[in-house]
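Homework help board

Subject: predicted structure for assignment chain

Our instructor gave us this sequence and asked us to write out the predicted structure in token form, then describe one feature. I got the tokens but I'm not sure how to describe them. Can anyone check?
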Amino acid sequence: MPTHRLSRSAFERLQAEHLDLTTRGRIEVAQKIQRAREMGDLKENGDYHAAKDEQGHMEGRIRQLESMLENAEIIEVAASDVVGLGCIVAIVYEGDSDDMAERYLIGHVEEKPTDPTVSVMSPSSPLGAALIGASSGAKVSYQAPNGTLTVRVLSVEF
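My token output:
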């Protein structure tokens, strides 16, 4: 099983989501299924099939959360001027001006940045892996599907 490296806030948010789905969520879906059963013929009962689909998706998410939480490693973000897990990095592609900068939180896909202008980037993605260990002003190159691309690190925030 892979280790899921999460910030403390992401870990706690996933725990809360798991608790909500295994309590309130399961009760609500069971009630929907029961109401749909009371309508009669289940073969052509759209409400019943929709509720069963919802139940299947929810149970899948519960299993996904359980796997992540069981194999989670909480990372503590250390203030540094070097790109690492949990930092927000601003980058600009070679040939672009600084006002075209993109900002990314380096971390697990389940991380939720508080700033809506910041996207999440996996440290295992080609660009994410190239950025790890870089500092402000550094140029890093990575292999993209359409060739080698180069970016410049404008800033590193924590």
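Reply (TA_rk): Your tokens look well-formed. For the description, you could write something like this. The chain has a mean pLDDT of 92. That's the kind of observation they're looking for.
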